[in-house]
Amino acid sequence: xxxxxxxVLVLILVLSVMNGFEKEFRDRIxxxxxxxxxxxxxxxxxxxxTEQQKLINNPDVDGTAPFIEKQVMITANNQVRGVLIQGIxxxxxxxVGDINEHVIDGDLSxxxxxxYKIALGVDLxxxxxxxxxxxxxxxxxxxxxxxxxxxxxxxxxxxxAVYRMNMGQYDASTAYIGLRDASKLFRTRKNVSGIRLKLNxxxxxxxxxxxxxxxxxxxxxxxxxxxxNKSLFQVMKIERLxxxxxxxxxxxxxxxxxxxxxxxxxxxxxxxxxILRTQGMSAKQIKRIFMVQGxxxxxxxxxxxxxxxxxxxxxxxxxxxTIEGLFNIQILPRDLIYTGTxxxxxxxxxWLQVFAIAxxxxxxxxxxxxxxxxxxxxxxPADSLRYE
Length: 388
Hints:
Elements: H1 2-32, E1 36-40, H2 48-56, E2 61-76, E3 79-88, H3 90-93, E4 103-106, E5 117-121, H4 122-128, E6 135-146, E7 149-163, H5 168-171, E8 174-178, H6 179-186, E9 194-199, H7 205-216, E10 220-224, H8 225-228, H9 230-268, H10 270-278, H11 283-314, H12 316-327, H13 351-368, H14 370-377, H15 381-385
Parallel strand pairs: 3-8, 5-7
Antiparallel strand pairs: 1-9, 1-10, 2-3, 2-6, 2-9, 4-7, 5-8, 6-7
Helix pairs in contact: 1-9, 1-11, 1-13, 9-13, 9-14, 11-13, 11-14
């Protein structure tokens, strides 16, 4: 019973923590990217206001926001960094992402037209040695002709905000400016790079993206958040599957222990079984006794394991803190994993997953009783009582 209990408990606990980390990564990514992105195949989306209005009217769409996206270099204090810069309208960007919630210094709303202000990732700001109020120079890939020759287009911006996503690819290599400032800097005129969409249900993104691609045609490119981060989520999925299989071996070991225990009971109780048979008990009734015994063990182990697993998953961070306090040790550094809260170990319980684990363990326990119960039913009273 304890073997099944601990197997179910550990399986639920570890998978809940892995689900928590996956949810954290997904939420952070969706703070920077949208559920669905509609852009032009040539990187330009003309007449975007009309397209935006059509997309807003879609019942599956909650919000939309235009953007301009380009690769640039940013320089300050003799430091140069390559950056993916995005032009946005802060008021509309709130409708498709929660980047505002990750601002740790300054105000993203200052990215107003003709303000020439910029928001930087925290790692990028540290590498450049700048703070809100400081100046940085944005160097584009476009060039302008001067008497001295062709030189890259540059523009001075004032740092308005610093944000932290705690993901290196965003904190060290992204920046935001106002949409109109981006349009003027990159000479896109009335064009934008694309429109971001936020859906009622983010899991509908692949279906809606395919539907929109069919409706809009080949002049448009429609992508969803899953395809844009396909490799990351595939790695996490494979990792979860492998870990599930490894942990499920604990349950299998407990099941084999259950089989061996019942077999030993059958061997030890052969005389008792024989006496019951001589008193009129049938082979089916003998078999039922051992099946009931194994079923009770499996049911109790799976049920208690599921309850304790859920309780531990809900309170894993306080338990971790308590253990560290009792033994005066540090299992996980505070700054090792950032979850956006005080919690160091995020946990997300998927109830369907919990039920599947508990029921799976219970079914295996029932199947494990078949062989010992069959052996018990085949005990011959005469052979068992011969030497008693």
